[in-house]
Amino acid sequence: MPKQIHLAAHFPGVNNTTVWSDPEAGSQIDFASFERLARTAERGKFDFFFLAEGLRLRELKGKIYDLDVVGRPESLTVLSALAGVTTHLGLAATVNSTFNEPYEVARRLATLDHLSDGRAAWNVVTSWDAFTGENFRRGGYLAEADRYARAREFLATARELWDSWSPDALIGDADSGRFVTEGAGEFRHEGPQFSISGRFNVPRGPQGRPVILQAGDSPEGREFAASDADVIFSRHSTLEDGRAFYKDVKDRLGKYGRRPSDLKILPAVTYVLGDTGEEAQERALHIRRQQVSGQTALSFLEAIWGRDLSGYDPEGPLPDVEPDLGEGVSRGRAQFRGDRGAVVKQWRELAASRGYSIRDLAVEVTGRQTFVGTAATVADQLNEHVQTDACDGFIIAPHVTPGGIDAFVDQVVPLLQEKGVFRTEYSGTTLRDHLELS
């Protein structure tokens, strides 16, 4: 029997790849936009709906980075509202473990699990930069090993809180309906990161514990996922990279007493459909050019060069000045923590070999649509990735919201169902059911 494909829908926003200026784009804030995308995902029998989180407006040269989608409402609040207009769809939110406290997060997620009848999920993330930490009293900088140590203990503490209610902690009787048994919700945690005790005031949710997602790709992140996560939100979307990542992470599970099926690997992907392959490729290039304007391209390079490049023509050659390897002009952009000097050298070689302008280079290196072609071609490619162990499914990230997955649900999903690799109806009620997790 072929492997079953797992699908999730991402409502993007903490990025500059959402084409909010497209005539087909709707509000990034109105609840109606979240509701439409979620209802479409549920119509397509997706496993879950996913919201990212940004805790600070990013800046460029001391000014708000106006190319991002900003002003996004708090994720768990949105998902709590979506619980009332969906029935089966899982509801996943990113919640930061660096700037929150276990009791508060555990309580909010347990509440969502009750409101949704067992459909809550938590994408556990960390934050490395003091820039974001300036919004919080404690400050924000933690070394990578330290932030994963905090994240592990944070998650372990949250689980202690959820587990403090035993399955029989609520007992009904004819007179009062329900009463709490002695010791229900009682907890005590003593550790390097947290020292808390008391009584957890939200009973155990329908799933017992919310589903845990994790997105780290570093060795520490992979180990954290192997030991504690139910789903990895991966960035490895090519066959070769996906297979290597899949094998590496799945091979780590045994040491924690876990099976390969206990962890689902779902890369974030995009798609573009056309009546022909050529039409789809043309549409994909048009979308990429929408996503990377001249201003976007210059600001992207400035984050690497660490210099003001506003005097350069985005349709001209790459800057001839050397990068300033200090803090630079862009803050809060965590994707550039590596060797920026080496990146500049590599990009210059690429631009020289292909005759790229600044904008051409930005279009090339900031990613492209993962699956491009006819609906049949895209369905075949998705299935190949799953059946050859490059992943267990996909998180679909549309470039336009809220209608960005309509074509996928209407054209690609039926073909996957015909192949027998995707459900035609939900067979369970909780997100753990959908993901085939124990």
Automatic annotation (TrEMBL):
GO molecular function: monooxygenase activity
Domain Luciferase-like: 22-387
CDD domains documented for this protein: Nitrilotriacetate_monoxgenase
UniProt keyword annotations, A-Z: Flavoprotein, FMN, Monooxygenase, Oxidoreductase
UniProt-listed InterPro entries: Diverse_substr_monoxygenases, Luciferase-like_dom, Luciferase-like_sf, NTA_MOA
Family: Belongs to the NtaA/SnaA/DszA monooxygenase family.
Protein name (database record): NtaA/DmoA family FMN-dependent monooxygenase
Source species of the chain: Actinocorallia longicatena
